[in-house]
Amino acid sequence: MTPKRVVIAGAGQGGFQVAASLRQDGFDGEVLLVGDEPGLPYQRPPLSKEYIKTGNADRLLFRNADFFEKNAIRYLDGRRLAAIHRADATVELDDGQVHGFDHLVLALGARNRRLPIAGMELEGVMQLRTLADAERIRTAIAPGLSLVVIGGGFIGLEIAATAAAAGAKVTVLEATDRLMSRVVSPAISAHFLAMHRASGVDIRLGTMARGIRDNGRGRAAAVEIEGGAVDADLVLVSAGIVPNVEIAEAAGLYVQDGIRVNDLMETSAAEISAIGDCASFPFGHDGTLIRLESVQNAIDQAKCVVQRLLGRPEPYDKVPWFWSDQAAFKLQIAGLTAGADHQVARPSDDGAKLTVHCFRHGALIGVETVNAPGDHMMARKLLALATPPTLETVEAAGYDLKAVFAAVSA
To answer: How many structural domains does the chain have?
Structure first.
């Protein structure tokens, strides 16, 4: 039965998409969207990319205020979900308001992981999650500034590249032996290591931050590492995220590396769905439980929920894809490549482009590209096929993905 009233907790990419898709697809009931930040819902990925350079907040908005009015979407900003009361199908907000629902969608997102080291509370120690965070970082970056980035993942490296281009002295501390090691192949890691070092960024692999020193006046002065310290006017901690599951868990929902859902985005309670960064779901033919932090995932899961609520259920089986802009290099990833047991790197003759084909058990599972959007788009088509191409097929086509697609589609 189609619900009469849908409440959406979380106004990020996934939450906004649920509200927009409900109206776009003909839902005529009540829609309440609750966001914990002040102001209109906005895109987060550009915060560590374009926004740090331009400071143009208007370009981040999903839609202007009149969109919500015209589509009868009630939007409550600056409010946070405080509790879910399943017995009477209501939610309680942090300002004491209580709202009933026929269906509740949890798009609660995630929060930054806090490192268990001394000095995290000092002035000049920052993390990026919100527009307000991005503005503080943007205004702090200046020529000659000493910036230490703790963590060599996407966000840390994106900001490192922008700060270096602005004339800052940048040091990146990465605890593992290569950059972005959780999500990309060694070839991609090496490519970006060379690029950042050529741009003047001091990359220190296998180096763990052990503490942040106080200058004696409550401000960060250096980051302690084994055998010494790195001077810092500003410290950016980019050490991953933690899914926001506590309220769901308190309501008795099943939690396992996120709010556990099935392939229709249903939680252990039929009247509640969960999507995006906070949700863990079965993926692939073997149903491996994963949790993805990507715009594509949030959008497609939102649409999956809407179709189910409107009586047109379709299991979620979209090909994951991700991107990162670092200096003049666009990294794009189709599929999940971390489990590959065989990788083939194909750089262009001038070194400006790179495509890495990733296989597991003789089948293509993902493709990583640098400045090669054509290969990326073709990889998404190939990975969406019911049967992915084999290593032998890709080899026979000379790793030309267009030729591979033609061969398997014939």
So the answer is: 3
